[in-house]
Amino acid sequence: MKKFMLATALVLLASPAFAKDYTIKEVSDPAGDKPYYFDPDTLTIQPGDTVSFINAQEDMHDVMFVEVPKGVDEMIMSPMHEKEGDKFSYTFTVPGTYKFHCHPHEKLGMKGTLIVGQASKSGETVMMGHHKMGMMHDNAMKTGEHNASAHQKGTAVANEVLATGKVNIVDISARTVNITHDPIKALGWPKMKMEFQVAKGVDLSNIKAGDVVKFSLKAEGEDNYVVVKIQQAN
Ligand SMILES: [Cu+2]
Fold first, then answer.
1. What is the pLDDT along the chain (234 residues), one digit of tens a residue?
2. The pLDDT value given to residue 183
3. What pLDDT score does 13 carry?
4. Beta bridge partner(s), residue 211
5. Which numeric CATH code is attached to 15-128?
6. In what order do the strands lie in the sheet with 42-45?
């Protein structure tokens, strides 16, 4: 009996009942001193705790973890939040320092730091670019090792990913296009302005700045997506 009670006590100690839930709000206040921010933007939690990022109003925000402790082997990235109450929750198990931002508002200072247990020392974290995240997602889907957070990012990544957007710059000699693309769910990318390399043989002569286009991206190499098709959307 004593043994049984001890076992029960140990299970209780290890159970998530002791883990805490935290909330970080994604706030828009365009007229304020700080137009876009996370509230709070710095938080310390313990391993096993869960943080929910919640959109505080109708506006576009997301959460991308761009620096994480070594040992975190998956991307931590929300889908685009658009409606009030849209939410992304993640349970942090690896101790260390995590840095995150909202991609649409990164340049406007919408970023934050999360410390799980204890802050990382220098050299104990790794950077995560969104291209890398896309690749990790791609690879995870291919090997079938995808997890819940990869699923939240949307549909499976096919060989070619379809996208739409508006052309800012076409450089025919460099074979690049700069496009403000709409959110690309398959890659978990929010709407953003990006420069893409264009594959050989793709005709760019009809594409010019200001065009609304449909295009296809294909993963090439480690960390790169190349335009393999592009045409005016209508
Ligand atoms: Cu934002």
1. 555 555 555 555 555 568 999 999 999 998 888 999 999 999 999 999 999 999 999 999 999 999 999 999 788 999 899 999 999 999 999 999 999 999 889 888 999 999 999 999 999 999 886 555 544 444 444 433 333 333 333 333 457 889 999 998 999 988 999 898 888 877 777 777 777 889 999 999 999 999 999 999 988 765 578 999 999 997
2. 82
3. 55
4. none
5. 2.60.40.420
6. 42-45, 111-116, 96-101, 64-69, 125-127
How remote is the CA of residue 130 from the centroid of ligand 1, in Å? 16
Closest CA to 75 of 126, 136, 138: 136
Q: Where are the domains of the chain?
A: 15-128, 160-232
Give the Å distance between the CA of 184 and the centre of ligand 1: 17
Q: How many residues does the chain have?
A: 234
Residues pairing with 64 in the sheet:
77, 101
Going from the Cα of 196 to the center of ligand 1, the distance in angstroms, rounded, reads 24
**217 near 226, Cβ under 8 Å?**
yes
The dotted CATH code for 160-232 is 2.40.50.320
Q: Which two tokens stand for residue 232?
A: 């005016």
Q: What's the CA-to-centroid distance between 66 and ligand 1, angstroms? A: 15
Q: How far is the CA of 154 from the centre of ligand 1 (A)?
A: 19
Q: Do domains 15-128 and 160-232 have the same CATH topology?
A: no
Ligand 1 centre from 2 Cα, in Å?
Answer: 54
